[in-house]
Amino acid sequence: MNGICTLANDYVFDQLIALLNSIDAILGADVPVCIYPFDDQTQRITEEISKRPNVFIYDDRESINSWDRFMLSAAPERLNRSKFRLYGAHRRFCAFDGPFDKFIYLDADTLVMNSLAEVFAKLDSYDFVVYDFQFKDVSKVYNVNSLKLREIFPQQRIDTEIFCSGFYASKRGIFNSEQRKFLLEYLQNGEGEILYAGAGEQPLLNYMVMRSNLSFYNFAQQLPANAATGCSVSSKHFEEREHILYDKGNQLTYLHYIGVPPHIHQAVCAGENIDFPYRELFLYYRYLHEPEKRPIFANPPQPYNAPAPNLFTRALRKLKLIPQG
Question: What is the model's pTM?
């Protein structure tokens, strides 16, 4: 069985609902979706998905605990809740245990924009499939100042096999217990120094895929230049037609709200008029099944990266709904 995977807790509830609704609209309401629990705060999600028979939360504690132990051995500093907002991001690795033979993983802050059939089809020929341009910035994956980096991976692989962990397709069983043990031995014997220090699981996943020599395909590199599309909200030129985005005439596969903090989506859904890229598209999918609950804004929007927190944002922080600082 094939399926879609994501990672979430109640903190990203609004983003998750938008993603699930985009899957409903674009792929169909019967597509199985597995949510990996970022942490134990999943009460709102549990209540919501009781209305969605195709969606379930992964509850294999043995699998979850084994990947928690793996992360603790591989990169314990990334589990520091006070330092890393993404302390539970590694739990997406549970997808390599099941429940799907082939799966596509999407971050909760993404929207499906197109059929994913071609992505699944590539898994007939490759172990790992992505569609992004992270390879243009190696510094967010590896420590580019490490002399060991080019001893482990040749420059050609570094230039072409880097990917963003917000969207990828792979198969169950690729990282079995023996392979994990192999990877941990290399990491603990000094290779951990090549990982970029400022992110959650993304550097580690890149290392795992490359060190395991998995066959790798990136649509962004393989498609003709006039057919490949962007995927990030940092691209301002996408055109919207009937709630789907196009990049110079080509339909996007997915849109990633990377760089927009979850509390911004949270505040907007609570009625705060904060602007961010492709906000109307997000609100359309967030309230696809309950448009009557969509917030109505009376005041002009404020940019989401405004330096001074307003009263509403300060209130959210006081209630510990968003991070301090």
Answer: 0.92
